[in-house]
Amino acid sequence: MKNASEVRYTATAVTVHWLSAVIIVAGFTLGLSMIGLPLSRQKLQWYAWHKWIGITVFLLTCFRLAWRWGHPAPPPMPTMLLWQRRAAAVSHALLYALLLVIPISGWLYSSATGVQVVYLGLVPLPDLVPKDKALASLLRACHVTLNFTLLALVCLHVAAALRHHFVDRDAVLSRMLLRPRPPRHA
Amino acid sequence: MSIGISERKTVLLRSFVPTLGMLLLAAGHAGAQGVLIDKSEIRFVSKQMGANVEGRFRKWKANIVFTPKDLARSKADFEIDLASIDLASDESEAEIKRQLWFDTAKYPVAKFVSNAVRNVGGDKYEVAGALTIKGITRDAVVPVALKKDASGNSVAEGSFTLKRLDYRVGEKEWADTETVANEVLVRVRMVLPPVQ
């Protein structure tokens, strides 16, 4: 039987994880940058791209959850304490939940402003709510708050991964790499 | 008639200028009545990056005389307060009032003045007229369908597509139609109470 440090995420899971990471960082950065722009063609383009990124994150996350269902994640490191295992499980669940809820909140917000979402400029998505200014400002606040919650969780996620790799020197990070570099053991 | 308006009917729609009513009454039209403002609307749909963007005008006034048996004397004139626009955000509402778009400081009102109302079969009509936006006047034909709602009100619904660049709405960088399409779908819905 393999020991826990040899059980890796599948190449598909690893690829989609890092693809999601890149797209999420791009979508978040674009979101922060676009709101300050004066109204211009560029601003309208960036808003559209931001929405396309959000829908992509939603679709990728659905795929990842389905994949994970069929290919369970490797078990926690045997060296991890109970509270660490619990914290990891809860934060991973919250990350997945946010990656589904945040795009939906953005879609709702866009609908409430009266702007339809057309994925990649090709696939029109239905308006979830009718145009309503008060609802739009509420949904905007939700979308922003959820995003900063995600930012905090991602920081925790990255910090934990780095700690596993450089302090605990276990395989938690390397099993999420396509070409694992096992931590150096003394 | 099939539309259920058998008698000569004159309807005055007004939104914010009460004097129009007196004007029409003084001109000898009987049965002047107000439009049901809450149920009536002037909306539009533009396209940004391929996505529909809804909007409407909060303030407008209409002077509608509709006589199915005397279409020659029927008319539907509108004045729209462009600054009353309701768009996606405060920012876009501010932008569209600026010089490159509506230039509401110079051209506060858009007008439609009908010059012919034609029956095109059953409850379908065509209202032809002159549409003026930003000082530019062009002909427009609005197909209109008439029906009755559950409360017996007459509901006239019309829609037509205009090209914003025909009226210089969106100049310079905004004249590009990749980001904001040239075509704007305008939807008008007027609800008139039954004639007493």
Q: Could you characterize the architecture of this molecule?
A:
- The complex is a heterodimer of chains A (186) and B (196).
- Chain A is mainly α.
- Chain A has a single domain, classed as Fumarate Reductase Cytochrome B subunit (Up-down Bundle), CATH 1.20.950.
- Chain A has four helices and two strands; from the N terminus they run H-H-H-E-E-H.
- Chain A has helices at residues 11-35, 41-70, 82-112, 133-168, and strands at 118-119, 123-124.
- Chain A has a two-stranded antiparallel sheet with strand order 1-2.
- In chain A, a hairpin with a 3-residue loop joins strand 1 (118-119) and strand 2 (123-124).
- The longest helix of chain A is centred in the C-terminal third of the chain and has 36 residues, at 133-168.
- The two termini of chain A are 25 Å apart.
- Chain B has helices spanning 19-26, 90-97; strands at 41-48, 51-57, 60-65, 75-81, 85-86, 109-119, 124-133, 136-148, 154-163, 183-192.
- Chain B starts with 18 loop residues before the first helix and ends with a strand.
- Chain B is globular and about 50 Å long.
- In chain B, a hairpin with a 5-residue loop joins strand 8 and strand 9 (154-163).
- A ten-stranded antiparallel sheet of chain B has the order 3-4-6-7-8-9-10-1-2-5, with no helix packed on it.
- Chain B is mainly beta.
- Chain B has a single domain, classed as Beta Barrel (Lipocalin).
- Chains A and B meet through helix 2 of A and strand 2 and helix 2 of B.
Task: Describe the secondary structure blueprint for this structure.
The complex is a heterodimer of chains A (186) and B (196).
Chain A: H1 11-35, H2 41-70, H3 82-112, E1 118-119, E2 123-124, H4 133-168
Antiparallel strand pairs in A: 1-2
Helix pairs in contact in A: 1-2, 2-3, 3-4
Chain B: H1 19-26, E1 41-48, E2 51-57, E3 60-65, E4 75-81, E5 85-86, H2 90-97, E6 109-119, E7 124-133, E8 136-148, E9 154-163, E10 183-192
Antiparallel strand pairs in B: 1-2, 1-10, 2-5, 3-4, 4-6, 6-7, 7-8, 8-9, 9-10
